[in-house]
Design a protein that fits this description.
single chain; 12-stranded mixed beta sheet; Nitrilase/N-carbamoyl-D-aminoacid amidohydrolase; 6 helices
Length: about 260
């Protein structure tokens, strides 16, 4: 893999388990056909959305953990060098939403646990899992510098800026957001790219939830220089791929507003 030229894929995946198997086969085909180097998955993609209700159910949580274990064991099928996403995990009696990186060479590695947790209709996340530590550390894989901002964390732009100052090439923003706020989220992704001078990637759930809630789709790939949206997904095109030059993220750091010091 040439670490300056990178083929990126972001996706939307259906919330319904019965739809996931078919979509998975399509995603495997897409990534292999496009020769994807790095894939971003949505927030907790391998189970129905847990936080639609404020009533925590340990059985549903444990089922979601098991489903993610099972699907993560299949990531090698994608034949992608790097896969990014989040998953439910329990440690020492506490639940977390854990951002991870998976690579062909090293397998699974925990990177970041979601810190900013909504607590409102359909997004009762603070009822289902605990905050992780307030740590937003850059990771480096094969010379690619990546920062995680899981869904709501994207709106705390001080972290996007800090990632940019640390030299991030990519901001990974897996999310679970509704259709009604889709345009606002794309605007937020453009702001994060502008603050960081990094490629902003996001993946989201698509389709409808069990109670008819409309998921937002709109996975995106946004350029670091002028925050141009290079690609955005839809129900007709749930997988989007772009080949980018990581040097664009290096160059963007020297242009407005990234060079302005605090």
């Amino acid at each position: 893999m040439d670490t300056r030229s990178l083929t990126l894929t972001c996706c939307e995946l259906d919330d319904k388990p019965e739809a996931l198997a078919g979509q998975w086969e399509q995603l495997v085909h897409h990534c292999q056909q496009q020769q994807t180097d790095l894939l971003l998955l949505p927030e907790m993609p391998f189970s129905p959305w847990l936080a639609e209700t404020p009533d925590y159910d340990p059985d549903l949580w444990n089922q979601a953990v098991a489903h993610h274990d099972s699907w993560i064991s299949r990531l090698a099928e994608l034949q992608v060098d790097i896969v990014l996403g989040t998953r439910p995990i329990t440690e020492s009696g506490q639940n977390f939403n854990e951002g991870f990186v998976w690579t062909q060479l090293s397998g699974y590695r925990a990177i970041h646990r979601k810190y900013y947790l909504p607590n409102e209709e359909y997004f009762w996340e603070a009822k289902w899992y605990q905050r992780g530590p307030r740590q937003f550390d850059l990771i480096e894989i094969n010379g690619i510098r990546i920062g995680f901002l899981i869904c709501t964390e994207m709106w705390f732009l001080e972290h996007a800026r800090a990632y940019g100052q640390a030299g991030a090439h990519i901001l990974a923003c897996p999310r679970a957001t509704g259709l009604a706020s889709a345009s606002k989220w794309v605007a937020g992704g453009r702001a994060a790219a502008t603050c960081s001078g990094a490629f902003c990637l996001s993946a989201n759930r698509g389709g409808t939830g069990a109670d008819g809630f409309k998921w937002g789709s709109h996975a995106w790939i946004i350029h670091p220089e002028e925050a141009d949206v290079l690609a955005v997904s839809s129900a007709d095109e749930p997988f989007i791929t772009q080949t980018v030059d990581l040097d664009d993220a290096v160059q963007a750091k020297s242009t407005y507003p990234r060079y302005v010091l605090e």
